[in-house]
Amino acid sequence: MVGQERASSLIDGGEALLAALIAQDELYTSMLGICRREEDAIVSADVATLTALTEEKEQLIEHLNALETERMTALVAIAAATDDLDAGTATLTQLEAVLPPSRPGV
């Protein structure tokens, strides 16, 4: 049973980590778009647009902070289910070595 619980923890942690990383990627892509629009607003001296974009960036940063917490929580869960993984220094290669293969549709 302990082995099954460990496997379940690894799967759940891996899925949570993947979801957080995908969401972070999407938000960073959005941030890049905002920064490009911000650059245009600066060049054209459009203060109103620049102000609105700054507020948008602040919201994205809040979401990114929440996702970073989710990502670290998932890493801690994965590390807790293994004996030799440090959540603070784990690399993707190390995670790949301890996580089971992903399930179809995940």
Task: Give an overview in words.
The chain has 106 residues and is mainly α. It has a single domain (2-86), classed as Helix Hairpins. It contains three helices and no strands. It has helices at 2-43, 47-80, 92-98. It is rod-shaped.
Provide keyphrases for this structure.
single chain, 106 residues, mainly alpha, Helix Hairpins, 78% helix, rod-shaped
CATH class: Mainly Alpha
CATH-defined fold name:
Helix Hairpins
β content, as a range?
under 5%
How many structural domains in the coordinates? 1
| Level-2 CATH architecture | Orthogonal Bundle
The biggest sheet amounts to: none
Low-confidence stretches: none
Morphology: rod-shaped
**Estimated structural class:** mainly alpha
**Spatial gap, N to C terminus:** 24 Å
Short description:
The protein is mainly α and 106 residues long. It has helices at 2-43, 47-80, 92-98.
Topology, please?
Elements: H1 2-43, H2 47-80, H3 92-98
Helix pairs in contact: 1-2
